[in-house]
């Protein structure tokens, strides 16, 4: 039994040792597994946290992209209009409905379809109009007595070139900047070397144009610092607005002129203690506008009488009025600065090589758009006056000297471009500035 007991004890001891050793091993193994699991879980947490941080960064980037504000124009303006409207859809002008017999056009499906087909043309002229609006808004903000007229014109024209992304005949200035003073009604811009300075008592007509693919926006306004001229400016502004309201498809041009004169001559202005009856300048008119043609054949009078011709669907018109404290009649005077190649001129042989060279420059840079001597200077042309006179004498180029009322009188001008769309009338150049 003793042996048996010993053996049993031995066996028990062996079992205890094995159990103990197994227990230790199991404990050690289980502890090892716990450490591994803890390490792996901490690694997993780190990975999850890293993934979450990356996701947050991406969300922040996405949010920052979404919050990106649209591009805004600088001051002074320098960003091209096409960059401000990445959709390439430009804003409409002021819409006015037709009256009376043309009311049906508003809801006509046929006329709406016609407008849809003409949308590219409308969009081009609206782009030119948006350039005009932004440039004139800027120019109004910097106008003050003491400005050199040459500096004023060059600032305005260079701003147009930037905003319209000037590109030869496809996009650019439509005609020279008119900045006629006081008794000069139109067609004056300083030639190179002119030292004329804008004065406090001046009445300045600022008339400039823009064009895209030959579609011209012609718009003008008058600037006077002295408030005594306000009634004169108001007369031409309201007369222009009246002409716009009266214009429309199948409207006779003479009827528009009669309405303009009635409003214009209801005003009077007192200057230096003397009262003047405001008069419409009877030999100045508005006009129809065609592609690359500022005067397309039809004239819009600003006095009663005149043509019985009707306005037609799809036509562009410049509705412009001139109010005068003088005789109400202009004549050519002063040194010429404006020129324009005749629209319908055919081939005319030229003998002077310099005239041929100058004509090539005109054809390339202006075609049938108006230009001035400063523009030729800018292109590097020199000693061209004799050649330019030769082109004028041959009837290829038409000079447009300044148009003046009597000295001592004052003239104001306002102008807008309108489009007689099939369904409505669009005042393309209208903005919130006037």
From TrEMBL:
<dbReference type="InterPro" id="IPR018349">
    <property type="entry name" value="Pept_M24A_MAP2_BS"/>
</dbReference>
<feature type="binding site">
    <location>
        <position position="415"/>
    </location>
    <ligand>
        <name>a divalent metal cation 1</name>
    </ligand>
</feature>
<dbReference type="InterPro" id="IPR002468">
    <property type="entry name" value="Pept_M24A_MAP2"/>
</dbReference>
<dbReference type="InterPro" id="IPR036390">
    <property type="entry name" value="WH_DNA-bd_sf"/>
</dbReference>
<dbReference type="GO" id="GO:0070006">
    <property type="term" value="F:metalloaminopeptidase activity"/>
</dbReference>
<feature type="region of interest" description="Disordered">
    <location>
        <begin position="1"/>
        <end position="81"/>
    </location>
</feature>
<dbReference type="GO" id="GO:0006508">
    <property type="term" value="P:proteolysis"/>
</dbReference>
<dbReference type="InterPro" id="IPR036388">
    <property type="entry name" value="WH-like_DNA-bd_sf"/>
</dbReference>
<dbReference type="InterPro" id="IPR000994">
    <property type="entry name" value="Pept_M24"/>
</dbReference>
<keyword id="KW-0378">Hydrolase</keyword>
<feature type="binding site">
    <location>
        <position position="218"/>
    </location>
    <ligand>
        <name>a divalent metal cation 1</name>
    </ligand>
</feature>
<dbReference type="InterPro" id="IPR050247">
    <property type="entry name" value="Met_Aminopeptidase_Type2"/>
</dbReference>
<feature type="domain" description="Peptidase M24">
    <location>
        <begin position="124"/>
        <end position="328"/>
    </location>
</feature>
<comment type="function">
    <text>Protects eukaryotic initiation factor EIF2S1 from translation-inhibiting phosphorylation by inhibitory kinases such as EIF2AK2/PKR and EIF2AK1/HCR. Plays a critical role in the regulation of protein synthesis.</text>
</comment>
<feature type="binding site">
    <location>
        <position position="187"/>
    </location>
    <ligand>
        <name>substrate</name>
    </ligand>
</feature>
<feature type="binding site">
    <location>
        <position position="415"/>
    </location>
    <ligand>
        <name>a divalent metal cation 2</name>
    </ligand>
</feature>
<keyword id="KW-0645">Protease</keyword>
<dbReference type="InterPro" id="IPR036005">
    <property type="entry name" value="Creatinase/aminopeptidase-like"/>
</dbReference>
<feature type="binding site">
    <location>
        <position position="207"/>
    </location>
    <ligand>
        <name>a divalent metal cation 1</name>
    </ligand>
</feature>
<comment type="function">
    <text>Cotranslationally removes the N-terminal methionine from nascent proteins. The N-terminal methionine is often cleaved when the second residue in the primary sequence is small and uncharged (Met-Ala-, Cys, Gly, Pro, Ser, Thr, or Val).</text>
</comment>
<feature type="binding site">
    <location>
        <position position="320"/>
    </location>
    <ligand>
        <name>a divalent metal cation 2</name>
    </ligand>
</feature>
<dbReference type="InterPro" id="IPR001714">
    <property type="entry name" value="Pept_M24_MAP"/>
</dbReference>
<dbReference type="Pfam" id="PF00557">
    <property type="entry name" value="Peptidase_M24"/>
</dbReference>
<feature type="compositionally biased region" description="Polar residues">
    <location>
        <begin position="30"/>
        <end position="43"/>
    </location>
</feature>
<keyword id="KW-0963">Cytoplasm</keyword>
<feature type="binding site">
    <location>
        <position position="218"/>
    </location>
    <ligand>
        <name>a divalent metal cation 2</name>
    </ligand>
</feature>
<feature type="compositionally biased region" description="Low complexity">
    <location>
        <begin position="1"/>
        <end position="10"/>
    </location>
</feature>
<keyword id="KW-0031">Aminopeptidase</keyword>
<feature type="binding site">
    <location>
        <position position="295"/>
    </location>
    <ligand>
        <name>substrate</name>
    </ligand>
</feature>
<protein>
    <recommendedName>
        <fullName>Methionine aminopeptidase 2</fullName>
        <ecNumber>3.4.11.18</ecNumber>
    </recommendedName>
</protein>
<keyword id="KW-0479">Metal-binding</keyword>
<dbReference type="GO" id="GO:0004239">
    <property type="term" value="F:initiator methionyl aminopeptidase activity"/>
</dbReference>
<comment type="similarity">
    <text>Belongs to the peptidase M24A family. Methionine aminopeptidase eukaryotic type 2 subfamily.</text>
</comment>
<feature type="compositionally biased region" description="Basic residues">
    <location>
        <begin position="56"/>
        <end position="69"/>
    </location>
</feature>
<dbReference type="GO" id="GO:0046872">
    <property type="term" value="F:metal ion binding"/>
</dbReference>
<dbReference type="GO" id="GO:0005737">
    <property type="term" value="C:cytoplasm"/>
</dbReference>
<feature type="binding site">
    <location>
        <position position="287"/>
    </location>
    <ligand>
        <name>a divalent metal cation 2</name>
    </ligand>
</feature>
